[in-house]
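COMPLEX REQUEST
Ligand: protoporphyrin IX containing FE
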Amino acid sequence: MTATAVYYDPYDVDIVADPYPTYARLREEAPIYYNERYDFWALSRHADVEKALSNWETFSNSRSDILELVKSDFDMPKGVMMFEDPPVHTMLRGLMSRVFTPRRMAEIEDQIRAYCVACLDPWVGSDGFDIIAELASMMPMRVIGMLLGIPESEQISVRDANDANLRTRPGAPMKVVQADKIADGRIYADYVEWRSKNPSDDLMTALLNVEFEDEQGVTRKLTRKEVLHYTQVVAGAGNETTGRLIGWLAKVLAEHPDQRREVYEDRSLLTRTVDETLRFEPTGPHVARWMAKDFECYETTVPAGSAMLLLFGAANRDPRRYTDPDRFDIHRDNISHLTFGKGLHYCLGANLARLEGRVALDELLNRFPEWDIDYDTAQLAPTSTVRGWERLRLVLP
Ligand code: HEM
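STATUS: Structure written out below.
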């Protein structure tokens, strides 16, 4: 490797601050990239990432989709949808889709809107507020709470316990202390116990009661342990990713005031705006895979057993796929992106995340048609799996 060869790792604070020049170099100079320091590979071109997502026989989720976990020696907990390949994954996903329906999500839209209104109303007439502290860090957990039926008093502690599991020290990989802690859902145990005695019309009650045919062909309900796994998967997957989306919407639209004004005038543009923001600044900039087989590309063999990163952030701005990819453009033709993944693990909460982004932006614009960013106090969150703002103060005129 020469001194000028492109370097990338997801822990480098300077790269993470603005990864796009590095992504561009990876796509052009090292479409299959190997990082010696942390021993992982990376694919960055849209076509390659897209193909990898559907090739689960080689790009396996069986050691999770988080780099640090793929590289750790821990036994993966069983029954976590994101950490399984077919056929177990197919069974788990079928089960989850049965309780995770569009109807259930549509039913909570009014509650989501009421929550946004209550968070934003107090700031009308002020000179500004931190949108992360006041809305984005709380809202997705509340929404998952609405889906699951978690009482409000439990929701803040659950969110903090969950985010703490994903925290990294700036510049360093996330420490895998106990892989189980990330995936077994123990932080929900009291709630699940309580809900089993107090059934209602929520996702948790549905999960506790759903009957299905398992791998052995036995018709049964989920065990309490399995219910906890499921809860953790939904809450872990939908919390920080969606919170960061709300931060990016505020940041990107502050920097594109003409497009913000257009959306203000015409709310039918809200959904496109959310999707273009997801393409432009994906909150989950990559997923990891464990290579179940040797893989050949660009005259290189990636050996079985390696860790692979699929760089959504790079793929979403590949000029082979998008015209003028570094331009934020809500009128772009066919806004499709890889931010929710693709294929068999495609994000189950994609429509819920879109709904949250749309409603949050709609209510923000209703109160604050114009805003700016206080760059002096803005701060990126130190995680290697999610990229977004931890502090983002909006300055109001
Ligand atoms: C902007 C917000 C979100 C982003 C960027 C995002 C991203 C993703 C991605 C990339 C995957 C695929 C992972 C892989 O291929 O290994 C995924 C899967 C998943 N997501 Fe999301 N997600 C978001 C919001 C949500 C929400 C709100 C929920 C639920 C409340 C959710 C639930 C899930 C679940 C259950 C899976 C696992 C699907 C499977 O393995 O079959 N996500 N998400």
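REMARKS: The CA atoms of residues 50 and 342 lie 7 Å apart. Residues 176-183 have pLDDT under 50 and may be disordered.
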